[in-house]
Specification:
Elements: H1 2-15, H2 18-26, E1 33-34, H3 35-42, H4 46-58, E2 62-67, E3 70-75, H5 78-89, H6 101-112, E4 114-116, E5 119-121, H7 122-134, E6 138-139, E7 145-146, H8 148-157, H9 161-166, E8 173-176, E9 183-186, H10 187-199, E10 203-205, E11 212-214, H11 216-226, H12 230-238
Antiparallel strand pairs: 1-3, 2-3, 4-5, 6-7, 8-9, 10-11
Length: 241
Amino acid sequence: MAEAAAGMARLAAVFADRTRAAMCVALLDGRAWTAGELAGYAGVARSTATAHLNLLVAAGILVEERQGRHRYVRLADRDAAELIETLSSHTPPGRDCPRTLRTAGTRAALARARTCYDHLAGALGVAVTDAMTDRGMLGRADGWTITPHGLDWLRELGADPEALRQARRPMVRSCLDWTERRPHLAGAAGAAVCGRFFATGWVERIGSDRAIRLTAAGEAGLCDQLGLSRAAVGDRAAADR
């Protein structure tokens, strides 16, 4: 018991720094970043960023990749991503006012639609999850399950349900959204939905952050396939244009 408590305290200490926390949140986009990019994102010197990244790598939260003289870091695995998202969802809602229009715009864009490592999050992610539930594609009664109708929809999107079943992760998982304070779809199915939305051009990234926006094709597709009203979906997308 004492050993477990000590380990928990060490892990908590890793995240108990605003700069390291900011870097971890940025890396939830699933991509690899350089120390310089993360330094700029967190607003610290590159040498300071490197020291923080070394600590996160040593703790097993991040892993590094080298290409020539360039060093990149990314989240170690999905477990690390889920831990960071879970911690974010348990923080009190932010009450501080953004100091610049750019900060306010970024915050609003992330709340509307973003990636949570490899699945959809924000208002868009929750809306898609709710629509799948309403149309009988996703069951939530006794734990989250994908229904036969949901498997058919995944096939229509271009995903392979059999491959998803064989993946070394749950087919579906609930992930508490840190801005909506409601669950969105994660797991292998959640990753497949997100991947197909990108592949078909339904969503696209905004700048270098993990914010994304719904395209005109995505608005039409969600309206047609999930019954999401064009007005509801369009309101989320329009503010990003």
